[in-house]
Sequence to fold (422 residues):
Amino acid sequence: MEKLIVTGGPPSLKGTINVSGSKNSSLPILAATLLTKDQCVIRRVPDVSDANYMLQILSQLGADVERASGNVIVSAEKISHQTPYDIVRKMRASVCMMGPLVARLGKAEVSLPGGCVIGDRPIDLHLHALKELGAKVDVTGGYVIIDVPKDLEGKEINLRGKFGSTVLGTDNLMMAATLAKGTTIIEGAAAEPEVIDLADFLNKMGAKITGAGTRRIEIEGVSELHGAEHTVIPDRIEAGTFLVAAAMAAEKSLNINRVRADHLKAVIEVIEASGHVVTVSGESIEVTRTNNSRGAKIQTGPYPEFPTDMQAQMTALLVISDGISTVVDTIFPERFMHLPELQRMGAVVERQGNTAIVEGPASLTGAPVMASDLRASAALVLAGMRAKGETEINRLYHIDRGYEHIDEKLIGVGARMERKRV
Ligand code: EPZ
Fold:
């Protein structure tokens, strides 16, 4: 186990941080390599444990997997339909293996994802979609057993759930539909940039997908897909996390490079609303911290609304901003594990159902805190940089799931932190 000791103090960050490739784009794209027996090359796959788990699953299924720094080469010539329980149960995102396995082999066995601290993680919409395409789906003994008695048949399928669209559900259906007979229409599709990135990769493999990035995606089935090369998009949540780090702790300003600013509109709006200055030039964003920080109102929603994956980090900024803020999470109403830990550091914040009410500015004091959800843990690192004294963040593996060397990147712009084995 490892922990991070963050030594807080006055705002002192300066310089430039480079953003890595997107975790949430890499995972479904790596799963999509199962749709062909040809070799695929995926570039800018971040060195995070979730991506490494996905590579382990691919090789345990029988694919040939090579990783040379950020580039991954996969040849899924002969593969099994049974995913390894011990790894799959550790990573919910492995549900996105279902679509490719069912399309390629006509069957799949994937363990049901465990719940997690951000709330219940159902996959009812995924299973509904695969059944609509003609698959037989059984859930027994913690496994999803899928079998396709005849062929997958394309049709119009509504993927809207009570919490809106589903990102990985859209990915699964899109991947399964690439090799189905006829045309599939996804109504109520997720429109996240990562869905567009997956569709771009699938089209490079010979799929016929239009409408990705809108609520209505059309997939015309083809008989087979071939190998392709692809560079995943920058990680917009990692980038957003560093934009918040700049607004909280830049001595004057900080540059965040290799980003797609168009993927961060809702996040940039809140940082500007809380009183800081954002300047976009090409693939670089500069955040200039000001002293007239103020509270803001946030409500998460499906892209392009404010991302649920950024609400914990933004809460850390609002905690030290002057005024009352409200943070509503409509996607994961339980995603507030960071609040008790921020309170231990002196934050004045109260939870009311799916809403956090923040009264700032609080002067934070370092404390031993517990990482939980990936993004809640990142929020604690950000708060630790502005707390008096030391903050000890335990269970660092939560952060390493989705951030590529976050401590190294922040130390590189002047943060004081040290990773320690316990
Ligand atoms: C993706 O998860 C992301 N993960 C999550 O990021 C992100 O928080 C989430 O999308 C929402 O944006 C990856 O891309 C690997 P959903 P996903 O299906 O696809 C409900 C991170 O921090 N729902 O879009 O699993 C669900 O409970 C992670 O990087 C159903 O009801 O999320 C939630 O309330 C955390 N039935 C809402 O929909 C279903 O069958 C959105 O979930 C599926 C989902």
